[in-house]
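Pilot study result, target chain (444 residues):
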Amino acid sequence: MSLRQRLALLARRLQEPQKVARFQRLCGVEALPRRSAAAATDPREDEKAEAPVAGDARRREPQAGASAGPRPPGNDRNQCPAKPGGGAPNGVRNGLATELGPASPPRVGALRRNSLTGEEGELAHVSNWPLYYLFCFGTELGNELFYILFFPFWIWNLDALVGRRLVIIWVLVMYLGQCTKDIIRWPRPASPPVVKLEVFYNSEYSMPSTHAMSGTAIPISMILLTYGRWQYPLLYGLILIPCWCSLVCLSRIYMGMHSILDIIAGFLYTILILAIFYPFVDLIDNFNQTQKYSPLIIIGLHLALGIFSFTLDTWSTSRGDTAEILGSGAGIACGSHLSHNVGLILDPSLDMLPLALTPITVTVFGKAILRIFIGMVFVLIVRDIMKRITIPLACKIFSIPCDDIRKARQHMEVELPYRYITYGMVGFSITFLVPYLFFFIGIS
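Predicted structure:
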């Protein structure tokens, strides 16, 4: 057997959903038994099946047309269509496991609900709760809530230069990852045998894992950008990188969202991207800060990248995520350009390096908390205002009914402008409007 054939065989084995299911069982996650046909016709069994479960106070809605036994993935009604000329569907919708039975082990409901499709994860037996919460935290390290707290914290409290450059790397890595998904078009691991604890990204393709890419790029970039600029032992960074990266990567297998091959490919792809593009990050940041017409070039470039990526596939949540990433990157770059030109945020001079870590006093800690609280309230208000403006406006321009916001957002003509403009303003607020507010009230 040639080397190429061996590698192909290894890749097929690493992509098997059975390996994901085996890892889940090893970590204490098992699917609940499927409901029998007799139970499906018994209203009392339905009431039991729809009762709230531990960790989830919401009642699950009954699923019309449920049938006995596992359903083949291809029969699923919430599946994104395959592209003409080939390509696998973007994932499958999970049936609800409803047979609770007497003295069942602890259960868990859907970790995250897909707000656009209404899809929820499967109910499952969870026997190891510490691991469940650990991997919930790990998967959140690649979600919007983390990003909207992490990048502002760096820019407002730690080091604006490092924060800006982390955003540049994050935008590049995530954009390439999302585009690669829509070119390769591999489906998510099949369920069954995999238990889908999370379905928020289930309508996207699987290869490579962008969570794994982000979980690799951020800690490595943090150390590359801060070591030598700040005084701290390198050992801290060498501990942080494998811990962060492995937690995020393993959490995606635990949640049933990626195969082992997706994770390995995401990790290696990120290393390749950093090796090629990291030397240019300093040049890109200086250009964004100092060039007179950089805002026009930034906006034009991000729009061009968006237009290219939006033609790769039919609708899925990845299109909106890509617009959100590009909009955030453009907004942060434009805001930092304006802040630099008005002297609002000034980077320390080279003769001050390396920077010493500031002792954490009550005053320093209090100001940091105040900046985060005020800044995040302002950012969330801006996001809400822009959402209320852009969605109805896009619906009006493209003659799309706006009665149901969720259905309206499933139209690309609504979702993409909403995400790009809204998160562009969020990024602009993070690097200009909020720092100006801090300066005005005296907590900068």
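One observation from the pilot: The chain has 16 helices and three strands. A full batch analysis is planned for the follow-on phase.
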